[in-house]
Specification:
Strand content: over 45%
Largest sheet: 7 strands, mixed
Radius of gyration: 13 Å
Number of strands: 11
Helix content: under 10%
Number of helices: 0
Order of helices and strands: EEEEEEEEEEE
Length: 123
């Protein structure tokens, strides 16, 4: 079973940057998709960015041009570089993985989840 541990959250002012990390351990399928999701209080969890093991990537429209998902394959760490942060980016951010390289930002399609890391952006 895959284990995911996020870190890197914190509090920043609008316009600032943060980089989230997700350390992946345990069994992973050779073909998989990993993603970053977020959930703000009172809102549904939403997909932010996803990366398939074959290297293709997708982003939610709300973060395109500001967020970058990447993976250090040797270290098995997934990153989310966030820049030009806005107050509406405030949420708990989660790392997740699923079997198969079909790219998706739909939370229900992901099987394994980390515990989350809080990101707070003040105006």
């Amino acid at each position: 079973q895959v284990r995911l541990v996020e870190s890197g959250g914190g509090s920043v002012q609008a316009g600032g940057s943060l980089t989230l990390s997700c350390v992946v351990s345990g069994y992973t399928y050779s073909r998989n998709c990993m993603g970053w999701f977020r959930q703000a209080p009172g809102k549904e969890r939403e997909g932010v960015a996803a990366r398939a093991s074959v290297g293709i990537i997708t982003y939610a429209d709300s973060v395109k041009g500001r967020f970058t998902i990447s993976k250090d394959i040797a270290k098995n760490i997934l990153y989310l570089q966030m820049s030009s942060l806005r107050p509406e980016d405030t949420a708990t951010y989660y790392c997740a993985s699923k079997e198969g390289s079909y790219l998706s930002l739909i939370p229900s399609q992901y099987k394994s989840w980390g515990q989350g890391t809080q990101v707070t952006v003040s105006s």
